[in-house]
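Subject: complex prediction, re-run

Hi both,

The earlier run crashed halfway through, so I resubmitted it with identical inputs.
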Amino acid sequence: MTLVDDARSGTPDRPPRRRASYANGERTRAALVQAAFEVFAEQGFQRLSIRQIAEAIGTSHTALLHHFGSKDALLEAVLAHREELEGPERAELIAERGLLDAVPEVMRHNATERGVIQLDTTLLVEAMHPDHIAHDFVRERDRAFVASVREQLERERELGRLRDGLDLDLVARLITAQVEGIQLAWLADDSIDMAAHLEALMDLLRAPGA
Amino acid sequence: MTLVDDARSGTPDRPPRRRASYANGERTRAALVQAAFEVFAEQGFQRLSIRQIAEAIGTSHTALLHHFGSKDALLEAVLAHREELEGPERAELIAERGLLDAVPEVMRHNATERGVIQLDTTLLVEAMHPDHIAHDFVRERDRAFVASVREQLERERELGRLRDGLDLDLVARLITAQVEGIQLAWLADDSIDMAAHLEALMDLLRAPGA
DNA sequence: GTCTATACTGTGATAGAC
DNA sequence: GTCTATCACAGTATAGAC
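This time it finished cleanly. Structure:
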């Protein structure tokens, strides 16, 4: 469950290094995304101006805009990068342990990533408007997430672990909303135990005696 | 369940010298709040500048700032106003029908107030930071809401309507987070049936056969 | 007390020279 | 691809007119 291992320390004047298998432009872009991810995870996104972000990374704000076009597009790129990092690990965890057991575990992990969760929640709210640049991205990611939860619920049902009579479409959305809702609450009050709450929800869904 | 029915009649803060018309009269703070509420409910908050808000109301942006001090303070005042309007009605509904039946009903009502829900969710996210001007307000409102839910859960338990073995503190928070999470999802996709989802959650909490 | 006029700083974004 | 202006607009502050 390790993420964001590659710490870029020091004060890089330009984004250096990284694998050379990309074209020059894309390599720069990828390095900027990685650096921005670390800045956001640590300091959040909302309250940082493009200029501050650029300074923390070690580049100019116009360079950032050149690569991403807008502040929100940068945010979107960073979240896509996160999904690239964490998605496979999360999928593996769920495949191994089953959804009911894995979800609380995922929340336990999320609780170690305050900046990223804040980032995620921020985008969720800002991209509400259909004409927001990241609206489609958020919608699609959300759709994929719910679909994946639904699929895993079916597996749990086949294994006899689920309570009878559940509408899986509804329940998949319920779980997703619970994750986002409890993250929102946790961001304002980090004494909230996110894993315990998802555990409680999962227990409600579990077949009696399972 | 009527709200925002225009109760601009009385201006309780000051002796009514001249009747306030919508064009260019004098405006008490309460009238500004009411007018701002209507603007926010219709057009949201985030994307409107103070100048745009003022124009929609029919005043100047500096007049708004004179009364409220900042944009966020205006938002806070409007949400407090909303709670004043809706709080009692909601409490009455819950007292009459019990929490399990009332919550889906509240969601049905909320689904008619897109702008207000958007406002609420926006503030929830923006006030995450401890040094945000509305942070304490949001925390306190949230605390009170959870406490109220918890109290109503106890009533349901006494009436034998609740499943056994529930941790009421946890469940109260679970319900609150579900409400906020499903509202967040609904804001991005209004084909989501918020009431149905809360109904499903309530069914999970209900004692078998109740 | 209520509002207007004006200006300041910082924001995201754009255009064009290198 | 990057940097140097420069943009329009944001939120805010203050001084003073009614």
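The CA atoms of residues 168 and 181 of chain B lie 19 Å apart.

- K.
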